[in-house]
Amino acid sequence: MDYEVLWERTDNLDDVIYAGADLANEDEIRRNLVGGDTRARQRLRDRLSAVHLTVGVGYSLTERVSLEIRARHLWSSEFGDGGSYITLRGHPSELRRDGSEPVRWQVGTEDTNRTHVGLRLNYRL
């Protein structure tokens, strides 16, 4: 699964940036956030365990024509993976300046179950 995110903050200081309200350095905080971007791009990988059940029936309509109906259900485990941002609000994606604690994100699905039903008409030459 491919994952990509790009968030860009507004360039207008008075638009929607309210961070640092009522702090002594409110203007500095807001100036630092203006125009910042958050980016991440990664191919997500996980191993999924799965079980599937297929059932079907065929019925001969004539000597040369038959009809088949098949159904398949797949039960699979949750999918999940994560990584670090390339940039977070316009700076490297780290909680500490020494780079020892990158900010991480996680993406997942509860399940990837699915059901397929197919109908096939066969004609023998």
Summarize the structure.
This protein has 125 residues and is mainly beta.
Report on the structure:
It is a single chain. The two termini are 43 Å apart. The chain has one helix at residues 26-33; strands at residues 2-8, 37-43, 50-60, 65-76, 79-84, 87-88, 91-92, 104-109, 114-123. The longest helix is centred in the N-terminal third of the chain and has 8 residues, at 26-33. The strands form four sheets. Strands 3-4-9 form a three-stranded antiparallel sheet, with no helix packed on it. Helix content is 6%, strand content 50%. It has one helix and nine strands; from the N terminus they run βαββββββββ. The mean pLDDT is 83. The chain has 125 residues and is mostly beta strands.
List its traits:
single chain, 125 residues, mainly beta, three-stranded antiparallel sheet, two-stranded antiparallel sheet, 1 helix, 9 strands
